[in-house]
Every structure is written in C-alpha cells, then in structure tokens.
Design a protein that fits this description.
One of its GO terms (cellular component) is cytosolic small ribosomal subunit. By secondary structure, the protein is α+β, with helices and mostly antiparallel strands. Helix content is 32%, strand content 21%. The protein is built from five helices and four strands.
Length: 131
C-alpha cells in the first residue's frame, strides 16, 4: 500500500483553528469535507481563504484537506488562509517572499476583548446621570 506524501500546517485567526493538509494533486479542495463555497457561504470568504494559492499560482497543483474548528465563518476563512500559506512554505521555501509581502504568514492576533464588570460591554459604560 503506497503512503501518500503530504505537508501539514496549522492556521489560526481569532478563536478559529484550521489544520491543513497539502498534497500534490489536481486541485481538489475540501474544508470540513465540503467545497469551500458551500462551507464558508460567501464568495468573498472563499476568495480570502484561497488567496495564498492564487498569489503563488498553485490553485490546480495541490489537493487540500482542511479541518477547521471554533470561531465564526470569517475567522475560519482567515485561519484557513494562514494554514494554507504555512503549508505552502513547508512545501516550497521560495514562495515565502510573495506570501510574506501579502501578509499571509503573520498570525492576526486581534481577539474580542473581554467584558469588564460594571460595564455593559468591554468598554461601554452605563449612562451617567448627574442628578
């Protein structure tokens, strides 16, 4: 039985975590066993998730399987893009400058700020009344 060679990477965005497997193939892409547009729901999110492949002209070169969990669909799309970019670097180091310039290798650390006691949200205070 032949063992298939693949490159794996993890991408993160907000509270979403994407585990990406990249293998040489014909361009089949699955996110949680579904087509990217079916899973993410919007063309803009699909474009954002597959942006690393478009920038490096590798859209039809790899079969990609992604397991993504946590967060919402927007965070998941960002996590998928981050994971694919990292996996591409593991596969071919010469793609690094292109992906770095596009900002796809940087983990976007912006998270939702926690709610503080005495406030309505993270920073919104209750209305002040003087009298």
């Amino acid at each position: 039985m032949a063992e298939q060679q693949y490159t794996g990477a993890v991408g993160r965005r907000k509270t979403a975590i994407a585990r990406v497997r990249l293998a040489p193939g014909g361009g089949r892409i699955l996110i949680n066993e579904k087509a990217p547009l079916n899973y993410l729901g919007r063309r803009t999110l699909e474009t954002a998730a597959l942006n690393p492949l478009r920038l490096t002209d590798n859209l039809r070169r790899f079969d990609i399987s992604v397991k993504v969990d946590g967060g919402g669909v927007s965070g998941q799309a960002g996590a998928v893009a981050h994971g694919i970019a990292r996996a591409l670097i593991d596969f071919d180091e010469s793609l690094r400058p292109v992906l770095k310039r596009a900002g796809l290798l940087t983990r976007d650390a912006r998270m939702k700020e926690r709610k503080k006691y005495g406030l309505k949200r993270a920073r919104k205070a209750p209305q002040y009344t003087k009298r």
